[in-house]
Specification:
The chain is an alpha+beta fold. It has ten helices and eight strands. It has a four-stranded mixed beta sheet with strand order 1-6-5-4, with helices on one face. It has a four-stranded antiparallel beta sheet with strand order 2-3-8-7, with no helix packed on it. Strand 4 and strand 5 form a beta hairpin. Helix 4 packs antiparallel against helix 5 and helix 8 packs antiparallel against helix 9 (386-399). Keywords: Cell projection, Coiled coil, Cytoplasm, Neurogenesis, Nucleus, Repeat, TPR repeat.
Length: 424
């Protein structure tokens, strides 16, 4: 039986009630105090103080101070008025019990609302943090792109300047070469003229000699001019701007060194896992990072199965399926656990799901398909559905005709079916 704390003092104003409760020698914590708008309770086993208040109070803003062996309550009234008494003395026992239960229900509802509000606030904070991170990443990406664009412009300007310098140097060389050729032509002409002047005979054939020499000179000059035209360099090519494009990449490796199909599959699986975790229950937030990896959970379940702890293995496979429901081996291994636990309908369900995911049928998944048919057929036979079980065993034999164990089990099922038919 509780020991009731009867000694207390209170006073009031039009807007508040001030209550002091002596608790000398008792250790009081905020957890010992329970208060709603009409109900106040202080429970320090075996001591108990309880009060059904005269009128509603604002329990959100009301306070309680603990110190010097006294709990001092400041209770703010919802309506400005003077109370006739601290507690509701005219109520009968049924009404008091109803007020207590109603206070507890209101407290539970309020706690639930606060929990939901905290959850919503936490989600909003996560969303804000994600948006802030995305903005930072976008700003960083933009900064890197700006730096690349500046470097690209700088390289382009340097290339244009180098081309202009090369054109100027080529033009200067061409002018120098043309000057040298012109000097050589003049020197050659002067030498031929001197030779003609030396071989000329006076007073005889002067005009013919002059004409022939002139013709010869003209012929030499014409031939040299043609050779000069042939030796001239072609005009330089016109300038152009080189445009460089960079392929956007999620992975740090270059595109020529990557394996695009595997990377896209990895990205798809990661996005699906993130969606699954974000949409899942709040209890997944308490898991460690490795416990959020379906492959790690599958290995953990395999170890539990090997030690004979089938229930723990089922729990590991269940969590792995919640994180990624597209892995057929999770259903196949869980079917083996259920078979050990004789959860036969679940064996049939998981084996069927594994066979649904093991498509298309290829040589790489032959072994897994054989196991799925055998486990489902075994469950059918233990449920005395021998026809369905035989169908699954025959399907397994079509995949692996040389499997002697499956052939023996299938023969036993045939004999059971024949014996059942003969008995009927």
């Amino acid at each position: 039986m509780p020991v009731w704390l009867r000694e207390h003092r209170w006073r009031q104003t039009a807007s508040a009630v001030y209550l002091s409760l002596p608790v000398r020698g008792l250790r009081v914590t905020p957890a010992n105090i329970f208060c709603t708008d009409r109900y106040l309770k202080v429970s320090i086993p075996p001591f108990l103080f309880e009060a059904i208040l005269y009128a509603p109070i604002d329990d959100t803003n009301s306070t309680a101070k603990i110190g010097n062996g006294i709990i001092f309550f400041t209770l703010y009234k919802k309506e400005v008025a003077m109370w006739d008494s601290l507690t509701l003395a005219t109520a009968n026992k049924e009404k008091l019990q109803y007020l207590r239960e109603n206070a507890v229900l209101k407290a539970h509802e309020k706690a639930k609302e606060e929990t939901e509000a905290k959850k919503v606030t936490k989600q909003e904070h996560k969303k804000y943090a994600l948006e802030a991170t995305m903005k930072l990443e976008e700003a960083e990406r933009k900064r890197i792109e700006d730096l690349k664009e500046k470097e690209r412009q700088k390289v382009t300007e340097e290339l244009e300047l180098w081309k202009k310098q090369q054109d100027a140097a080529e033009k200067q060389k061409r002018v120098q070469k043309e000057g040298q050729l012109h000097q050589e032509v003049v020197q050659l002409k002067e030498k031929k003229q001197e030779k003609i002047n030396k071989t000329r005979i006076p007073n005889e054939g002067t005009s013919e000699t002059r004409i022939k020499a002139t013709k010869g000179c003209r012929g030499s000059y014409s031939m040299f001019s043609e050779n000069l035209k042939e030796e001239q360099l072609p005009a330089p090519r016109s300038t152009a701007t080189i445009k460089i494009n960079f392929t956007s990449r999620v992975f740090p490796t270059a595109l020529r060194e990557s394996r695009v199909a595997e990377e896209e599959e990895w990205l798809r699986k990661q996005a699906e896992a993130r969606r699954t975790i974000s949409d899942d229950l709040a209890e997944l937030e308490d898991l460690k990072e490795e416990e959020k990896n379906p492959d790690w959970l599958k290995d953990k379940g395999n170890k539990m199965f090997a030690t004979g702890n089938y229930l723990a293995a089922v729990n590991a496979y269940n969590l792995a399926v919640r994180l990624n429901n597209k892995l057929p081996l999770l259903y196949l291994n869980r079917a083996a656990c259920h078979l050990k636990l004789r959860n036969l309908h679940k064996v049939i369900e998981d084996s069927s799901k594994a066979l649904e995911l093991l498509t298309p049928p290829v040589p790489d998944n032959e072994n897994a398909r054989v196991k799925a048919y055998v486990r489902r057929g075994t469950a059918f036979c233990q449920l005395e559905l021998y026809t369905e079980g035989l169908q699954d065993y025959e399907a397994a034999l079509k995949i692996d005709p040389k499997n002697e164990n499956v052939e023996k089990d299938a023969e036993k099922i045939r004999q059971l079916i024949q014996g059942t038919t003969q008995d009927s």
